[in-house]
Write a structure and sequence with these properties.
EC 2.1.1.148; 8 strands; Gyrase A, domain 2; globular; about 45% helix; alpha+beta
Length: about 240
């Protein structure tokens, strides 16, 4: 049997993009000034920054939709089940266990991942677990993963269809998907899937999807720094 690979991190790669702060400015100014040239936009950076902040503050959202980013995300299946709750402004294509044999790559939490949950639904708090709790968690997960993947391979070897055999695999299995969005849909995702002190609306994301969100945000911020700064300034609320 192929030896399983246990990972405690996720991977997010910006595959392609057509996204810049100028895209927001073009879209916003066409309503009042017609089609603007890039030179006109660059002539007064302060004015451009002010316009983006105005749009963000007063939640004029459509100018933030005229751009595109495609990410390759590699994460546990349970992360994708949460991710696919985000439908407006998102497109997804995920690898399929019907058409290919799935690789034995599984998630285990890192030592610094909080393990102990308390509180009530909607306002859960998490605390660090003990070394013994972490060891127990990882040991149990690895044992279950090995057993389920062995059963999966036995079924495939017996001629069972991939789409049937995959049912024995757990949600801790890693999958891959392309996710395409615009800045407005990404900001909505980030407002729900990250926890920040400066956020006007509190959020309580599961840590694993927050790890994906953090990597997406860093790559988006490099593409659209003025838009990202305005998102931060105005409380991380999607326009």
């Amino acid at each position: 049997m192929t030896e399983p690979d246990f990972r405690h991190d996720v991977s997010v790669t910006l595959v392609k993009s057509a996204a810049a702060d100028a895209d927001v400015l073009f879209a916003a100014r066409v309503s009042t000034a017609g089609e603007a040239s890039l030179a006109e936009l660059d002539a007064d950076p302060g004015k451009s920054e002010g316009l983006i902040n105005y749009l963000m503050r007063d939640r004029h959202g459509t100018p933030f939709e005229h751009n595109s980013m495609t990410f390759l995300v590699q994460a546990p299946i349970f992360v994708f089940r949460e991710f696919h709750r985000h439908r407006a402004g998102w497109s997804y294509n995920e690898e399929s266990g019907r058409y290919r044999e799935l690789e034995p790559v599984f998630y285990t939490p890192a030592e610094d991942r909080p393990l102990v949950q308390f509180g009530r639904p909607g306002k859960y708090e998490f605390a660090e677990g003990t070394a013994e709790q972490h060891e127990r968690t990882v040991t149990a997960m690895e044992s279950a993963y090995r057993h389920s993947y062995a059963a999966y391979q036995e079924m495939l070897a017996a001629g069972i269809a991939r789409e049937v055999a995959r049912a024995v695999l757990p949600v801790g299995l890693f999958s891959s998907m392309y996710a395409t969005c615009n800045a407005r849909s990404l900001m909505h995702f980030l407002s729900l899937r990250t926890k920040r002190e400066n956020a006007k609306v509190p959020s309580f994301p599961q840590r694993e999807i927050e790890m994906v969100a953090e990597r997406m945000e860093a790559q988006w911020a490099a593409l659209m720094p003025l838009t990202h700064a305005a998102f931060e300034t105005h409380g991380r609320v999607a326009p």
